[in-house]
Specification:
Layout: E1 4-5, E2 7-9, E3 12-14, E4 21-24, E5 31-35, H1 42-58, H2 62-78, H3 80-91, H4 95-119, E6 125-132, E7 139-147, E8 152-155, H5 163-175, E9 179-182, H6 188-201, E10 209-211, E11 228-232, H7 235-242, H8 245-248, E12 253-257, E13 262-266, H9 275-289, E14 299-305, H10 309-321, E15 325-326, H11 341-355, E16 359-362, E17 369-370, E18 383-386, H12 390-395, H13 398-401, E19 408-414, H14 417-425, E20 430-436, H15 440-450, E21 454-460, E22 479-480, E23 491-492, E24 502-510, H16 511-517
Parallel strand pairs: 1-5, 8-9, 8-11, 9-10, 11-12, 13-14, 13-20, 14-19, 15-17, 18-19, 20-21
Antiparallel strand pairs: 2-3, 4-5, 6-7, 7-24, 16-18, 22-23
Helix pairs in contact: 2-4, 2-5, 3-4, 3-6, 4-5, 9-10
The structure holds NADP nicotinamide-adenine-dinucleotide phosphate.
The site of NADP nicotinamide-adenine-dinucleotide phosphate has 23 residues, from helix 7.
Amino acid sequence: MTELLQNHLGGRWVAGSGAGTALFDPVLGHELVRVDAAGLDLRAGFAFAREQGGAALRAMSYRERAALLAAVVKVLQAHRDDYYAIATANSGTVKNDSTVDIDGGIYTLSAYAKLGDGLGDRHYLLDGEPARLAKEPVFQSQHVWVPTRGLALFINAFNFPSWGLWEKAAPALLSGVPVVIKPATATAWLTQRMVRDVIDAGVLPAGALSVVCGSSAGLMDALGPLDVVSFTGSAETAALIRSHPAVTQRSVRVNIEADSVNSALLLPGEAPGSEAFDLLVKEVAREMTQKSGQKCTAIRRVFVPEALYAAAGEAVSARLAKTTVGNPRNEGVRMGALVSRAQLGAVREGVAYLQAQAETLHDGAAHPLVDADAAVACCVGPTLLGTRNAAGSDASDRVHDTEVFGPVATLVPYRDAAHALALVARGQGSLVASLYGSDAKALARTAIELAPLHGRVHVISPEVAAHHTGHGNVMPQSLHGGPGRAGGGEELGGLRALNFYHRRTAIQAGTATLAHLA
Ligand code: NAP
């Protein structure tokens, strides 16, 4: 039997009472560890987090909590090699892709440690200036942000076991709110190990950080009215969370990061081989293959002027053809595995579903696997599809509705700028769109046109070629989340992330009293 990972709840390590669910190596196929959450006293554990963890965190200032984040960073940095080994084994990712998750998480924590330090020795934040309530400024309204008295439950997706934890935990802990993390079962190992290292190092107060690995049963039931839940995952599970009585009856605040059919758009007027054209091609190929396309922000739809369809298809395909796929332990491999056989099956099904309305420009199924047994490994090459012409782009609904969570994108030709915008809008709200062009005025205008449909618009022009942070990379300085289909959530965006973990209250008082708040 493999090791059964422990949960950390109520300030102690506790094993589930069941046999556990196995986690697998998606390349070699063998069992790695097991997780189990059966029999845990979730209500008592949550009460401990709120009462012990919450009180200890709130007793500190923002600056002191920022120092806690910096201490967590040090602990994680000391164990990076272990995290890379776990990512290779459990996520099947090549080193560069593990970096996005592991170092991306550590970087985000560091960013919030710096931001928090700047908030100083305060215990709450002021929101704006006092507003007069009477004719004379003797009685006024001052809004304040105070940390919520509940806990923050994070229910996370399998694709970012490190970053997914820390991008949420950093603003929560900085706000003074204790965290309970429930990682997706398939890749829970890395999350559990990171939490274990941080707990063992003793850098956080008891109850500030808990981890529950395994079934999600009972987690939502244990939430109280002042708790918050932040969910990342599929639209189907998001619907279950939204309709849970914790949300509908107890007003638990909820943030949803769901799936998204993100776009890349080459503006009209760019020739094949122009800098903007090449930047689009490079970014599309990178987005399709990074983490084997298992990124919520990955480019799924690529919009190009109809006249450039063939050239763009050939250029992206030429890059994809060079992608070596297989065992991430082999130095020559650039793209590792999908996370599980279930995901491999879902990606194959998804490609077939899209192919009914699109032609195949580059067939991932034809890629040979390096150092990997196709009967066991969850590996598949990148596939580029295309809707052939502008009429095909209109007629196809599947490309706009379907997120295939793997190395798959579709080239969608458009007639003119208005047509391009109308096609992008058929995604019904996405996390991110990237724009490529060399006309700053047209880029700015298009960015504002796309803004209502996206949480982030990433604009790439030749002068930022060597400086931009990547279409799919989520930076702590910028908002993450999108409207509509993307879940309607908001995360990160610098200090804006703290709002979710605070309550806003209006204090109506005399000027002398308000002076004591400032
Ligand atoms: P998922 O199946 O919805 O699972 C997400 C999480 O929900 C897992 O921790 C899962 O636990 C848990 N869960 C399952 N059923 C639940 C229930 N009834 N109540 C409470 N929790 C429950 O999603 P996934 O397959 O892991 O992730 C892939 C999806 O996530 C993709 O669609 C992707 O676009 C999206 N995603 C979005 C973002 C974003 O930031 N917007 C980021 C990453 C991924 P178990 O694993 O134990 O079932």
